[in-house]
Write a structure and sequence with these properties.
313 residues, mainly alpha, two-stranded antiparallel ribbon, 13 helices, 4 strands
């Protein structure tokens, strides 16, 4: 079974049809199944009256159970697949919902459309679906900036990283990565409740994204109309980001579009002072968000082309 062929099938399927809403209503989605397990473990293991050390150990147990269960199910399904082209096609179908190409494009497009017409309330409502900061405090440029950052980071988390781990470890690798990434998104926060319990989840997510984030930044740079600017910005500014990984695709996109990203942002009542990426450039306008989506499409096309070459070779 060709891992490249499996990932190419999954990528193309998700890009063409996404995860149909009718299917989601009937059976949910693999990420929601993983999320339900994490939520249960969080309720049962994360007791507020326990010490930080005990909560860290409980968080490590939650990570082990979640990733172990997900890998076991994916491994069992892989073992049941037939040999040959049919098995490859079925593996691609199983990996299909674990790639997020169309859903990411749709979420960003939902912000872009009202932003282009000047409908800020609708744009704020749409951007609230993909970012954690307070949307009511975002002006037109702030909405465009937050959306571009989400597009860049989630290109790595939702597409490049699962494909990377799928190429290395097959379907269990894709499933393991989605479990790790979902753990981080649900409990890997520096809050009073999850600071200790989510520590292992956050650190494991950092490790899992170490190579994919840098590969995503390189991919953005290579398909951009300003590859030199994108590469220089990535190499100069990526390490300034609060995340060890998100800064790489975000800085590459900032350089490719010649806009500034990151910077100060508001989370509820808390103001977070973050350094700028490509700080000497202007704030992004709605048209820059459209250019960011075009860059994203070129990157996905290039990724599909590379997978196709790997299949042929």
């Amino acid at each position: 079974m060709s891992a490249a062929a499996v990932m190419l099938i999954a990528l193309v399927l998700e890009a063409l049809i996404g995860w149909p809403a009718r299917l989601h209503v009937r059976i949910g989605h693999p990420v929601t199944w993983i999320g339900a397990l994490i939520a249960t473990l969080d309720r049962r293991l994360n007791r507020e009256n326990r010490s930080a050390a005990v909560r860290r150990a409980a968080g490590l147990l939650a990570v082990s159970i979640t990733v172990g269960t997900t890998v076991a199910v994916a491994g069992l399904l892989t073992a049941l697949l037939p040999e040959g082209p049919l098995g490859t096609a079925l593996a691609g179908l199983l990996a299909w919902p674990l790639i997020a190409t169309r859903s990411l494009h749709s979420h960003v497009g939902a912000v872009l459309r009202p932003l282009l017409t000047g409908d800020l309330p609708a744009a704020r409502q749409a951007v609230a679906m993909i970012v954690g900061r307070d949307p009511q405090r975002l002006d037109r440029e702030g909405i465009a900036r937050a959306t571009l950052e989400s597009l860049a980071e989630n290109s790595s988390d939702g597409i490049v990283a699962p494909i990377f781990w799928g190429l290395l470890l097959g379907l269990p690798g894709v499933a393991a990565y989605k479990a790790i990434n979902t753990l981080d998104s649900m409990i890997g926060h520096r809050t009073e409740r999850h600071g200790a319990f989510g520590w292992a989840a956050a650190r494991l997510d950092d490790l899992a994204n170490l190579i994919p984030a840098r590969a995503t930044g390189l991919l953005f740079a290579l398909v951009s109309t300003r590859p030199r600017s994108a590469l220089l910005c990535m190499l100069r500014d990526a390490r300034r980001h609060r995340s060890p990984n998100a800064g790489w695709p975000e800085a590459a996109m900032a350089g490719a579009l010649e806009v500034r990203l990151s910077g100060p942002r508001s989370y509820g009542t808390r103001l977070s002072s973050e350094p700028w990426l490509n700080g000497g450039a202007a704030d992004p306008a709605p048209g820059d968000l459209a250019r960011g989506l075009a860059l994203f499409r070129r990157a996905i096309g290039a990724l599909a082309f590379l997978l196709a070459i790997a299949v042929l070779v």
